[in-house]
Design brief:
CATH class: Mainly Beta
Number of strands: 8
Distance between the termini: 15 Å
Mean pLDDT: 94
Number of helices: 0
Strand order of the largest sheet: 1-8-3-6
CATH architecture: Sandwich
Number of domains: 1
Length: 110
């Protein structure tokens, strides 16, 4: 598979990390090696948690990345600042109180 991004001509690789849970919470960790040239990092928080007072939330290194309320939704955004620090282990925590949820992280590098 070949990859090309019109904004980042030297980027040649795309890593997708996906995690889902229907158990109330889940955790995983990632490290961006210092030897990589990271061009962009983003994420997609998605959930189907039901109605009323249900919610879901993804935190990275203790900071809220995305949080949503009732029903089905997809929330997207860029990872910035400390969440893209290289050579450091980062912790991602998924929490919800109904249904299921997930996170997809995208790392574009060369």
């Amino acid at each position: 598979m070949r990859y090309y991004h019109w904004q980042y001509h030297k980027a040649r690789k795309l890593l997708v990390v996906l995690d889902t849970t229907n158990a109330g919470s889940d955790t995983f960790k990632y490290t961006i090696p210092g030897s990589l040239k990271l061009y962009e990092a983003s994420g997609s928080h998605f959930a189907n948690v039901g109605c009323c007072v249900q919610w879901s939330q993804t935190t990275i290194d203790g900071e809220v990345f995305k949080k949503g309320g009732s029903n089905k939704y997809v929330l997207v955004g860029f990872l910035m600042g400390q969440t893209t620090a290289q050579g450091v282990q980062h912790e991602v925590v998924l929490k919800h109180n109904g249904g299921w949820m997930g996170i997809a992280l995208f790392f574009l590098y060369g």
